[in-house]
Amino acid sequence: MGSPMPHDLLVEELQRAREDFLATLSRVAPDSLTTAGLVGEWSARELVAHLGYWVGNAAEVIHLVEQGRTDEVGAGKPPTDEVNATVARIARTTELVTVRKREEASVEALLDRIRALDPSLLDVVLPDGATLAQGIREDGSEHYREHADALRQALDEAPHG
Q1: Rounded to two decimals, what is the model's pTM?
Q2: Is pLDDT above 50 for 161?
Q3: What's the pLDDT tens digit per position in 53-88?
Q4: Triad 65, 135, 94: Cα angle to 5°
């Protein structure tokens, strides 16, 4: 009885990874949040939009699995690089406050989906060979950690004035 349920661990991992990402993001000068080239060619605004999109994708995947439509996961979607380019392009013309609100709403929706999820569905194998739990981590906590690390590296390599 003392060990947490698997979906509780997914919630905790996502919350911790996102908090770490946001703490790292807070190190970026406010007037630089929308300047291209922070991480690769992206600004912080594009990075936040990117994370929000993929968290939303994880919530969609959960929905498909819950509906017994696992074979539809990823079907008909453009290649990942194309999706990322579209998300970044849209983010460039969207106010930062709006991008941040959308990302937060996507995270809250995913957390709600995870909390309500039947834990037995976490072992369902998706078309790419990953389990649902692995897919949630890839689009969620692992993704936030990956981009927090890239952001830390960019900030540490920035010229010191």
Answers
A1: 0.93
A2: no
A3: 999 999 999 999 999 999 999 998 899 999 999 999
A4: 100
Please tell me the number of Cα atoms within 13 Å of 54 on its side-chain side. 25
- Which DSSP category does 29 fall into? -
Which tokens is 146 given? Answer: 């990956």
Which of 94, 137, 122, 30 lies closest to 103 in space, CA to CA? 94
HSE, CB side, 13 Å, CA atoms: give it for residue 117.
Answer: 32
Model confidence band, residue 1 (pLDDT cutoffs 50, 70, 90): very low
- pLDDT (mean) for 132-145: 97
- Can you tell me the distance from the alpha carbon of 5 to that of 28, in angstroms, rounded to the nearest whole number? 36
Count the neighbouring beta carbons within 10 Å of the beta carbon of residue 159. Answer: 4
Q: CA 58, CA 133: separation in Å to the nearest integer? A: 10
Pick from 10, 54, 55, 46: nearest CA to 28: 46
Please check whether residue 115 is in contact with residue 63, taking contact to mean a CB–CB distance below 8 angstroms: no
**DSSP conformation letters of 114-146:** HHHS-GGGGGPBPTTS-BHHHHHHHHTHHHHHH
